[in-house]
């Protein structure tokens, strides 16, 4: 999906002027356009493969497994797309292309996840989907030539919120048959403290996704759900956004650090779209994320 389309849909979703049937029709059309075609990894790395598999019974509960040639004991990146909890697709070029170009040649398996979205599933059920997807990847990794003990989660925007939520409290992953993983890269979420977000001025799309129940806010808030067993996190944030997600990232990072978890905040002077699309290019930004990933994979604790 092109960035212009994504920005337009967020604008429509965030203003009451476009509420009602017209907005719903446009959302429907944009949801259709957001579905991407699976990238051919062999064009990136000769011999690389991709397969689409189901991790649940719902048609939306699928993931694409991109593997380098003849993987053996390969580390795994699990990527969760954004889209306001309502749109987006695992195969969108902005979600996977540059990440494949970076990490497939390093021998990583890259898994891109789809999940149920609004209006079919609320944010709490979306988080359950991500928990089940991570547990599924850990279990099935040997079949793909991967190592289920070497998993890094990654997510952007709404996907960043979801991976932060299950990283703050990995209990749902454990309940699904999985275990805590090595680390998580949270890419530009502005919903790390959902209660605080909902108590100040915010885009209407947050009302659509998060409702008006403070109990629900706390249930889907990484800050409120944070447990001592939280997964180490790198919190990437755009310093260009007017809603200042970096302030939220610093506050959440302080919570993590107070509990002794490994955490970093990485501000970037990039747009909300570019901070995801360009991850994987040969930049200092990508190198920093790469360092975090390799450091977490090397940690035996």
TrEMBL record:
<dbReference type="InterPro" id="IPR049492">
    <property type="entry name" value="BD-FAE-like_dom"/>
</dbReference>
<dbReference type="InterPro" id="IPR029058">
    <property type="entry name" value="AB_hydrolase_fold"/>
</dbReference>
<feature type="domain" description="BD-FAE-like">
    <location>
        <begin position="63"/>
        <end position="167"/>
    </location>
</feature>
<feature type="signal peptide">
    <location>
        <begin position="1"/>
        <end position="19"/>
    </location>
</feature>
<dbReference type="Pfam" id="PF20434">
    <property type="entry name" value="BD-FAE"/>
</dbReference>
<protein>
    <submittedName>
        <fullName>Esterase/lipase-like protein</fullName>
    </submittedName>
</protein>
<dbReference type="InterPro" id="IPR050300">
    <property type="entry name" value="GDXG_lipolytic_enzyme"/>
</dbReference>
<dbReference type="GO" id="GO:0016787">
    <property type="term" value="F:hydrolase activity"/>
</dbReference>
<keyword id="KW-0378">Hydrolase</keyword>
<keyword id="KW-0732">Signal</keyword>
